[in-house]
Amino acid sequence: MNKGKIKLGLIGGGPNSFIGIVHRIAAYMGEQYQLVGGVFDIDHASGIAFAEKLELDTSRAYESLEVFIEKELALPADERIEVVSILTPNFLHHSMAMKLVDAGFNVICEKPITITAAEAVELEQLVERKKVVFCLTHTYTGYPMVRQMKAMIAAGAIGKIQKVDAQYYQGWINPFIHDKDKRAQVWRLDPKKSGQSCCFGDIGVHAFNLIEYTTGLEVEKVLADIDTLYPDNPLDVDGTALIRTKDGVKGVICASQIATGEENNISIMVYGDKGGLKWEQENPTYLTYMQEGKPAQIFKPGNPYNAEFAQESTKIAPGHPEGLFDAMGNIYKGTALAIRGEKVREGAFPGVKDGVRGMKFIEAVLESNKQGQAWIEIK
Amino acid sequence: MNKGKIKLGLIGGGPNSFIGIVHRIAAYMGEQYQLVGGVFDIDHASGIAFAEKLELDTSRAYESLEVFIEKELALPADERIEVVSILTPNFLHHSMAMKLVDAGFNVICEKPITITAAEAVELEQLVERKKVVFCLTHTYTGYPMVRQMKAMIAAGAIGKIQKVDAQYYQGWINPFIHDKDKRAQVWRLDPKKSGQSCCFGDIGVHAFNLIEYTTGLEVEKVLADIDTLYPDNPLDVDGTALIRTKDGVKGVICASQIATGEENNISIMVYGDKGGLKWEQENPTYLTYMQEGKPAQIFKPGNPYNAEFAQESTKIAPGHPEGLFDAMGNIYKGTALAIRGEKVREGAFPGVKDGVRGMKFIEAVLESNKQGQAWIEIK
Amino acid sequence: MNKGKIKLGLIGGGPNSFIGIVHRIAAYMGEQYQLVGGVFDIDHASGIAFAEKLELDTSRAYESLEVFIEKELALPADERIEVVSILTPNFLHHSMAMKLVDAGFNVICEKPITITAAEAVELEQLVERKKVVFCLTHTYTGYPMVRQMKAMIAAGAIGKIQKVDAQYYQGWINPFIHDKDKRAQVWRLDPKKSGQSCCFGDIGVHAFNLIEYTTGLEVEKVLADIDTLYPDNPLDVDGTALIRTKDGVKGVICASQIATGEENNISIMVYGDKGGLKWEQENPTYLTYMQEGKPAQIFKPGNPYNAEFAQESTKIAPGHPEGLFDAMGNIYKGTALAIRGEKVREGAFPGVKDGVRGMKFIEAVLESNKQGQAWIEIK
Amino acid sequence: MNKGKIKLGLIGGGPNSFIGIVHRIAAYMGEQYQLVGGVFDIDHASGIAFAEKLELDTSRAYESLEVFIEKELALPADERIEVVSILTPNFLHHSMAMKLVDAGFNVICEKPITITAAEAVELEQLVERKKVVFCLTHTYTGYPMVRQMKAMIAAGAIGKIQKVDAQYYQGWINPFIHDKDKRAQVWRLDPKKSGQSCCFGDIGVHAFNLIEYTTGLEVEKVLADIDTLYPDNPLDVDGTALIRTKDGVKGVICASQIATGEENNISIMVYGDKGGLKWEQENPTYLTYMQEGKPAQIFKPGNPYNAEFAQESTKIAPGHPEGLFDAMGNIYKGTALAIRGEKVREGAFPGVKDGVRGMKFIEAVLESNKQGQAWIEIK
């Protein structure tokens, strides 16, 4: 039945979770989802209290994923949770996603999709076999002006692409990294919790994703130089990756968590033989379009001159800024359309394929660095 | 009972309403409200369909305000709608607010609060007598950096204020105003629907409110020059108001709907004997703080260096932009606290007093212009 | 003879003069002038030393204006100084300009042209009778993007003008104004040295000039509210002027020297029925052009898409910023063309008429304020 | 004798030369130089006409460098040209500089200093032996805010540097590069005229220089990936270089001439363990200083809070933009001090060592690319 709201479950994202509130608001925003239950906390009592606070049926605040799956599957189809958002620590994403997909649930998964590329491929195959909807929340693809950029490039606004450059600079690790004890306590620097990579796994992969998302190009190989800053720190906190696409376009991805003072400075520049496009996440309502021999143009959301895809991604009149929650809301809206079986625009939400591409990119970056900055193919 | 969500009703804001989606998202955002019912549309069938789409109990999609009040009052107190958002056309705000307040409902009211200052005063008295919570949605006061500005000024960051300047420029009327037939069809230019003023009533009053909100100063008198552009257009589409505060501070408020190409350019600059502060709505995450003899500083949301009030008004880490929906969400959150009887920070939501001040300002502007730009006191 | 460089004399602007270096560099820049002599300092010995430092013929470092005129007139015409820049304190401009013009010299005069409007008119009549070239250095008119703005408006890019807004905010008086002794020592606050007005005389008039320069409109009347901040301070340090042009366009001019933290923030916005244009002096290489329903465009100097007038006002390839010295250099270049009797583009340099307009504006502002904010015509 | 102006000669830079006007204005600006003669054009008659136009002694408009040297050396020392600016095509810089230095002239040389690193080293040795002043015009080092950045880093404002990133993006080659005939005619793409590298030789080296200039770090090795875009184009038009400094700091230099729509977008970001600094050439009057846990600060020229070096590099009050000509003027001023034998601040002008470093960097970039992106040491 496509009429009502989609029943949503959450794994993780309970009390005091920053990412939890982002997902819940995104779900509320489009009025497409109804939060029904989930595993809100490792501590069952706390999860029940959370459900109470949100006025949910506490019987659907489960103690574990296994119980969640068992109990929900036992419900009649029209009462059952249809889609589950996985907001747990990184190392749990893969196993949880596998179980949920295997049980037939649609899944919305926080990044990173898995810890290894092999796991991502395994998950991709399962998703395809199970024919469920799988959304990977590369949030920045939900911004209207990122979608406008994608639409303009697809429409030929900048011609044949000849250079790509994306950057993601943060400084948040700086206060921790210089002290041996402090850095040992940062979970993102702990391979067991964080995975193989910190900087490229957490943020560099966003820059990579933005390039493939907006341009439609496929990165073929990378050469990367990464930095752990201290020998006892096992994971990268900074690095640069040279890239080449299948079409021979060269480019660069810069990422850093020791860019002291930077907050969340992700930006992308794409240049073609007819023009260029630039976008920065911290000023997300401005897209700069440069054309050979003409004044640069500033595209802003909410205007009829934008592509349909961008127009659909705005809820409000021009000049009223929308932000990160709205971007995530757009991704949830796109996913809802897919769950309902409606026609979905390409790019309406990132999927399992984006996850596989990202994990392969991260592994290629690490391998390149290990080999002393060799070119590594992303197969 | 303070535990559960606050039961929310809506009057207006149904299908295809731009302002409706803003209020609903704002209500969802803080997880403080549960939308229960309302009068969603003039057409009852359409209102019921809307309730169905949102999976509400259709029996609470009422045909009129009168029925709404009667039926809700008949419910047990713990089932009853506790707060009602009024999102109807301007000319209905006053009478609806009077009826709802009189019946004991808390109210969240779209701007303008009423059509005349006298009506606003009447409403203010009723609100005081009935001791209900009344929120007027001057949305821009919900931005974290506006609240930071208010907190910094209160803390003396710029010293004694010596100059204020606020501007609200839009261009949206330009495509309609130059054609006699077209301008006759713009509802905002129709005194019956829009009230006494278009430009100052709709946007100039926001600039006025931002000044009083951030500075704590009270504007004592105004001298205004307004423009209808064409003699057959009964309402202002542009104008400038000189202002003086009780403390003798001089300032200016510029407003225009014929500033062709401008989208929603509202900004405020306040200068004191120790420093200055500047903020622009279209780049809401930047607050510029200038001090005598020092480099300007750029304050951004989500940072611990901000005042508590500003910190509480952000949901996310620094560098992730929040926008208009988040600003409205903050106002809804503040209102929820008040409804629950909890301690509420001054400025957490604009109230009936702001409405009275705004209406008096608008009438003073009109009177000043009528008298050929005379100084008119705001009593 | 038009072949060689124009012989330039300076009155004032000697050692340690800030404005002196601006004019000399402006003169050198276009390689149109040769500095030959002048009255460089009240102290003759210091003036001679200055001439020596600049490797000038010290016999042409005169002790007074009278001697300057006498000695130069005694020289053969082809050796004589052809144009004199007046860089003395404000109160001397008028008498010096009168003497020089009367003696047949071309004049480049710093702002303000005179202390009163009557003096300016007197000077204007003499200039017309003597048929000399007279340049008043409203420096901001020399910026390429201001000229582009003028050219675009003249070419109809924004259609019929319907709103003008110019602002000039500084904070430099703030450190002096709050202390009775300090403010008594600021020469700009001393009517004997500064003239009738401080804020409007020094900076407000620039905003006025920019409006008339870029739009071609003539301001017909003004209503102004000015502020001295302290009763014992005789001159304005802040104010706002409502304006109306002959064609009925309304607008506003805001000026302040107590906008704490502001450096030299002069900006102009002009809106027509087809589009709008915005420019800010502190970012002088960007001109924003907004059109109904289209993305805003950013015009930058050095590009072939600019009007000829703007192109001629840049010396360098796009992307290499030019600044204030270059703007003044453009005005000197325009003046040189006029002195040589060559065809000069309208607007290539501001003239005596701009001086008369400015003085009348200042007097109207003061009179309006004196009458309690009445409308005063600029005759 | 230190009293008078320094006698300046020019080689090249005559009629219609873009770079000629930059150098002449820079020389005039500080009133330290007097242009006396030179070899203004390959065509002697045209050179003489140019001298006439500038009112120079035409007997010092020489037909060749050889004649220039012979005739000037024949003059008494106090009449002789003391410093010569070399503004000829790239391939002539080395031989001309060698001859001039060998003859004892001080030299101001346009970039690139030579075609090969070996030539640069040869020149460096001669300069040292001859004890002349040698200035290489890396113009961007003349901006006040670049000097402020250098001074702040030296003073420890950002602590120990941990990441550097510089970029130089232009799009000017785009209109020519895609057509086989057109690109064959671009002199910068002709190795005979331009040298071994186009993009890195012309602009990438500026980014490299800015890094070493502002940080004081020495780049030890590079790994570069460059792009000619078409196989028949012999020279690079785009590329990225990974860098490592002697202290183990990692960084990246991005350069492109096919960044379509970019004008002259050179920027630098340096991050340390205490803060970060960012500067962009197209907005040269803003320097962003970020500190851990504090609002970012915006430094602007002309303010007493700046370092002395930066203060000395501004001629005017805050808020009046200075640009590229002023930057070059600062370099000329620094060179003048050195020629006069006065104390010169480190960094007051770039010298032959900067030229040697730059050429070695360029050759390392090319070698790295040739070897398939290997790490190459800069010896």
From TrEMBL, chains A, B, C, D:
What lineage does the source organism belong to?
A: Bacteria, Pseudomonadati, Bacteroidota, Cytophagia, Cytophagales
For the Gfo/Idh/MocA-like oxidoreductase N-terminal domain, which residue ranges apply? 7-136
Q: Please give the organism.
A: Marinoscillum luteum
Q: Which domain of life is it from?
A: Bacteria
Q: Which residues form a coiled coil?
A: none
- Protein name (record): Gfo/Idh/MocA family protein
Q: Please state every residue range assigned to the domain named GFO/IDH/MocA-like oxidoreductase.
A: 146-277
**Which InterPro entries does the protein's record reference?**
Gfo/Idh/MocA-like_OxRdtase_N, Gfo/Idh/MocA_oxidoreduct, GFO_IDH_MocA-like_dom, NAD(P)-bd_dom_sf
